[in-house]
Design brief:
Elements lengths: L2 H18 L2 E4 L9 E5 L6 E5 L2 E7 L8 E7 L3 E2 L3 H8 L11 E16 L2 E12 L2 E14 L3 H4 L8 E12 L17 E12 L3
Antiparallel strand pairs: 1-4, 2-3, 2-11, 3-6, 4-5, 5-7, 7-8, 8-9, 9-10, 10-11
Length: 207
């Protein structure tokens, strides 16, 4: 091949590779905002709480959204409800046993049913494994993803950093009986279904 053509071909390949390469987005929020809300809407005592200490990484490429994969986890001990005594019970051995099972996690290997819903936004089903109290279940979690190119530096008040953001939102429901959390007990006060609501921001600073 002509040396000049070879150089042009190599440069083109390099550019395409750089554009196509997925980025790793870190969900350990430097601003400490990321949290997951959980709701147990029982008959007598609806309970709403939060889980903070969220971290994890997701690889994402806007040119191949379905290939996204990653792991999000939260420290079990960070779960909290407004009543301190109820929080103590929640973290205890009879419920989520935070002392023995330190993390709650969701690890997904792909996105299914990906659909573009606007400029830089997609809906999808995240297929993966949810682990709670040492029990893992295969689940499909409906999510929406927003890719904000060049917004990382702006969010952390350092525009010179550049970089991108990935915002993942969703709502899904688990049964506490599936994870061995007091199945069938106290259902008038502690609902059998746990609804999880999340809106998490992951950052990829400019390399």
């Amino acid at each position: 091949m002509n040396p000049m053509l070879r150089t042009i071909a190599f440069a083109g390949f390099t550019i395409v590779s750089a554009v196509a390469a997925p980025k790793a987005y870190d969900f350990k929020d430097p601003k400490g905002v990321n949290a997951i809300q959980f709701t147990l809407d029982s008959v007598l005592e609806p309970i709403v709480g939060t889980a903070s200490a969220v971290e994890g990484k997701v690889t994402f490429d806007p040119a191949d959204v379905a290939a996204s994969q990653g792991r999000i986890e939260v420290a079990s001990a960070s779960l909290k409800v407004p009543n301190d005594k109820m929080t103590e019970h929640l973290l205890g051995a009879d419920w989520i046993d935070a002392g023995k099972h330190e993390d709650i996690s969701f690890e997904f290997t792909k996105l299914e049913s990906v659909k573009s819903i606007g400029d830089g936004k997609w809906s999808a089903l995240a297929a993966g494994k949810f682990t709670l109290k040492g029990v893992s279940k295969e689940v499909l979690v409906p999510v929406t993803l927003s890719h904000l190119e060049g917004a990382y530096g702006k969010r952390v008040n350092k525009p010179e950093l550049g970089g991108d953001l990935l915002v993942v939102r969703g709502v899904f429901t688990l049964l506490r009986s599936d994870f061995g959390i007091q199945p069938g007990k106290n259902e008038d006060k502690v609902a059998p279904a746990i609804q999880l609501t999340f809106a998490l921001v992951g950052g990829a600073p400019k390399a």
